[in-house]
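Table S7 (text form). Paired inputs.
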Amino acid sequence: MLKPSQRREAMFYAKTSLFAAAVFLACFAYLKFLDIPGEVNKSVADTAIILMGLSMLISSICYYWNRFDWTIIYRKYLGLVGFAFGIAHLLLSWGAFASLFRATTWSSGAYMPALAGVVALGIFAIMAAVSNTFAASKLGGKAWRYILRTGYLAVIFVFLHVVLLKSARWVSWFTEGMKTLPSLSLLVSIFMVVVIVMRLLLWFSLWKAAKKIDQL
């Protein structure tokens, strides 16, 4: 028999998983419509980015728009379910990961996209490992929050991963007159920029608020 707290956790995981499934299906349908090959793996990757990005974007959204405060509880669950999708993407892209262990990959400079992705996933793994009350109590609130904020660095590495892989296609799409809908990778990259910009705005707002208090 589950305890009330465990039932609550299970409910949040279930809701987040349903949302994740909806995001995955939307990504898959979009890629199918554009007739992009490898749609399953790409949908998994984009779902991971969207979920983990939302888990970090929620803080900024709730700071500026109180009506969304009810979403703050989902930060942990979005991040962990998104991380699971990230692991699935790694497994589906195992050939690219394995290439990091070949000397020819490093000599040709072809390692950068895969390395950026692996570094990002490593940071997210650390965040996932400390996303619990036990880790928070052992590390202390300040250190715990600092570790979780490294997620923004991970977003930057994911952005580099996507740009290195897809930017040539974006340029071709633009120079050829944008005759189709934009690629999902471009839309997801714009979303990552929004996540980082919103966090920078939040830091600035918090800095201004603290400065104003010091002047009182």
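Next pair, protein 2 of 2.
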Amino acid sequence: MHFRLCASRCRLISVGAWRTGSLLAVLLAASGAVSAQELKPWNGGTTPVLELADLGGQRHRLTDYRGKVVLVNFWATWCEPCRDEMPSMQRLKSRFAGKPFVVLAVNVGESEVRIAEFLQKLPLEFTILRDHSSAAMRVWRVRGLPASFVIGMDGRIRYAHTGEMNWDDEKLINTLAGLLR
């Protein structure tokens, strides 16, 4: 049995089977309070490789986005904090329209059908990538969902955060705007 931490809230969530066929149970160890709105400077080494297909089958490589600030967000439809932060991520993308800013939302371990059903309820205008085997999640050392990484124009991770974020927060917006200069 696999356990994955869905950061930010304390709750037991039962989900469908993963590719390995084992049932995924999610145990939240947090106290129930939303964590502080803070992107922590990255000190975890080099930026891992990210190469995944979107829902249309097109391959995306993080290296293709050099010269842009990229928000890489690992998420799942069963993760309530993940779902809750999606609208503010959409507003963030809209706020930086016309700027070299991209959101890559990496769905972890779910089928295209489940993702499509979610997107019918909450249409999003940023790129959704599929990490169906959770390989990218492991390479990026994601320990809980949602997990966000901010990549600078040079392709290096600048900031990271595990847990729900309100991407409407002015401090976060200013941090990202600073990377766009």
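The domain at 35-179 is CATH 3.40.30.10 (Glutaredoxin).
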